[in-house]
Design brief:
Strand content: 15-25%
Order of helices and strands: HEHHEEEEHHEHHEEHH
Helix content: 55-70%
Structural class: alpha+beta
CATH class of the largest domain: Mainly Alpha
CATH topology of the largest domain: Outer membrane efflux proteins (OEP)
Number of strands: 8
Largest sheet: 4 strands, antiparallel
CATH architecture of the largest domain: Up-down Bundle
Strand order of the largest sheet: 2-5-7-8
Number of domains: 2
Radius of gyration: 40 Å
């Protein structure tokens, strides 16, 4: 029994610890966007790419700055190489040779070299390329932010849509259960046909099935939003905004008459950078026709001994140093360099064509998105009015049905029409939000 209590205490303790680790979030749409732009997985890596590009830019810059290397080499000649010399040098017989070993058993060399690039056309182009590479990373980050913003808005709207669908279905279920109860009582009194009861039961069964599906979809939509926001799926998340408020906030008739400045579009900026990159590639290949010039200064010491005495203070070290200048002049490459220049020019021309294609495509997209946004506003107005009419029709048919003036079929049709109008209106609100987001994205309006 004592062990049982211990187990219970440990279980409760682990549950409390798990609850403490679980974080709670509550966001408006704007707060959700701000959180995603800091914590979304793609955004985090996009920021790291910028950091990497900054380091890459400095790496390229450092190529033209002084470079210092130092080395320390030790050599143990445990078997010194021998050479043959005429023996008569040492008093021997002419024509004979004697084995002589040159050198010492231990050698050590320490030196330092300073290198400086004086001129290289490739290096100058490389500096420009490093700047463009950084711009590419920054533009990629901007595009990622725009895409994540759109994803958050769509996911946020989907959660609101799913939650509203659940609420509407619950309300319809409560209303239908009440009507079913009343009709059942009327049927028991013999004042209506059994078909009327069965028809309502079928409708209620359909609502129960739809409610179960909508509830599961709401949970999945919430998890999808958590994923986009970059928070753990086990954490809780509440939404502060409601669907109707967001829809009204995103109805902006002035946006339907907005103009398109293509230079603000991120896709156009990316294509411009691609064009610049290919232009630099042409310059790079042309720079290889130019000579390169560099210099180096070397300073060192070496020491020799038959015993390992290099750490002793009286060990003799011999110093040496030199200054060198190197000039490399490309003369003839069997037209290989010319071929690479032509290839780079072709790539540049292709980039020009792609830029023009992107420009035309974006202008077409803008007109399409603007038209779809305007249509979504019109559909919102129509759906709202249709919902109001469907509610009136369903109410009238319900009264007629209970009074025996209208058939169960007519009442059921009025209900289905109402349910369809409810879902259509909810989808129209989300569509307004999504289409406004798509328009803001293409004109880079955040």
């Amino acid at each position: 029994m004592k062990n049982f209590y211990i187990i219970i205490v440990l279980m409760i303790s682990s549950l409390l610890t798990a609850q403490e680790k679980q974080e709670q979030y509550a966001f408006t749409l704007e707060e959700a966007i701000a959180h995603a732009l800091k914590n979304n997985y793609q955004v985090v890596n996009a920021e790291r790419n910028i950091e990497s590009a900054i380091k890459k830019k400095w790496e390229t810059t450092a190529i033209g700055l002084p470079q210092i290397d130092a080395s320390l080499n030790y050599q143990n000649n445990f078997e010194i190489q021998k050479s043959l010399v005429p023996a008569e040098f040492f008093g021997g017989n002419p024509g004979e040779f004697a084995e002589v070993a040159f050198g010492t058993k231990h050698n050590m060399v320490a030196n330092a070299t300073l290198r400086q690039l004086i001129f290289d056309g490739s290096y100058l182009v490389g500096l420009q390329s490093a700047k463009v590479y950084l711009q590419i990373s920054e533009n990629a980050k901007e595009k990622t932010d725009l895409e994540i913003r759109e994803m958050v808005i769509n996911a946020y709207g989907n959660v609101l849509l799913a939650n509203e669908s659940v609420n509407v279905l619950k309300s319809n279920k409560t209303s239908l259960e009440k009507t079913l109860y009343e009709i059942t009582q009327i049927y028991k009194n013999g004042l209506t046909e059994e078909e009327s009861v069965e028809q309502l039961q079928i409708t209620l069964s359909q609502i129960n099935s739809s409610l179960s599906y909508a509830t599961r979809r709401a949970n999945i939509s919430l998890d999808m939003l958590k994923f986009v926001l970059g928070i753990d799926l086990d954490n809780t998340l509440q939404l502060k905004d409601n669907l109707d408020q967001l829809a009204l906030k995103n109805i902006d008739l002035a946006a339907t008459t907005s103009t398109f400045n293509i230079n603000d579009n991120i896709d156009y900026k990316i294509e411009l950078n691609t064009l610049k990159s290919n232009e630099l590639l042409v310059k790079l290949e042309k720079s290889k026709y130019l000579p390169s010039l560099g210099a180096q200064v070397n300073f060192g010491y070496n020491s020799f001994s038959n015993d390992f005495s290099f750490l002793q203070s009286d060990q003799k070290w011999l110093n040496y140093s030199y200054l060198g200048v190197g000039l490399n002049v490309p003369i003839f490459s069997s037209f290989a360099r010319s071929s690479r220049v032509q290839q780079a020019k072709i790539a540049y021309e292709k980039a020009e064509t792609n830029l023009k294609q992107t420009e035309q495509n974006l202008r077409l997209q803008f007109e399409t998105v603007k038209n779809e946004y305007q249509f979504s506003i019109e559909q919102y107005t129509v759906s709202k009015e249709n919902l109001r009419l469907a509610e009136r029709i369903e109410h009238k048919q319900g009264v007629k049905f209970q009074e025996g003036i209208s058939s169960s079929f007519e009442f059921t049709e009025a209900q289905r029409q109402l349910y369809a109008a409810q879902q259509s209106f909810l989808e129209a609100m989300v569509n307004v939000i999504n289409k406004k987001t798509a328009l803001d994205k293409i004109i880079n309006n955040n």
